[in-house]
Amino acid sequence: MKQVMNASKKKKFDQQRIAVLRLEMDYELAVLFEAMEEQNEDKKKKSTLKLEKIREELLKMKAM
User: Fold this and answer.
1) Which domain of life, per UniProt (predicted)?
2) Distance (Å, rounded) from C-alpha 13 to C-alpha 38?
3) How far is the C-alpha of 24 from the C-alpha of 63, rounded, in Å?
4) CB 17 within 8 A of CB 63
5) What are the φ and ψ backbone dihedral angles of 23, each rounded to 5 degrees?
6) Whole-number Å distance between alpha carbons of 50 and 59
7) 43 and 35 in contact (C-beta within 8 Å)?
């Protein structure tokens, strides 16, 4: 019974984490778009790196 409860808690945590990551991804895409409009190379590079990290984490969680 304890294992079932732990699995249930982990699944709920994973779902919440995926939701947070998707919100972060949406925000970072907006930042990237803004950087592209401003032609700000430094801001674009930072945003792209953040997006890559978010993508990697989502892939690890098999959410994409």
Assistant:
1) Bacteria
2) 37
3) 14
4) no
5) -65, -45
6) 14
7) yes
Q: Given the structure tokens 């930042």, which residue do they identify?
A: 31
Residues sharing a CB contact under 8 Å with residue 58, sequence separation 6 or more, in sequence order: 18, 21, 22, 25, 64
Q: What is the pTM of this model?
A: 0.80
DSSP code of residue 62 = T
Token pair belonging to 59: 């892939």
User: What 3-state class would DSSP assign to 44?
Assistant: helix
Token couple for 20: 């947070």
Q: CB of 28 within 8 A of CB of 54?
A: yes
Tens of pLDDT along the chain (64 residues) come to 777 677 778 888 889 999 999 999 999 999 999 999 999 999 999 999 999 999 999 999 885 4
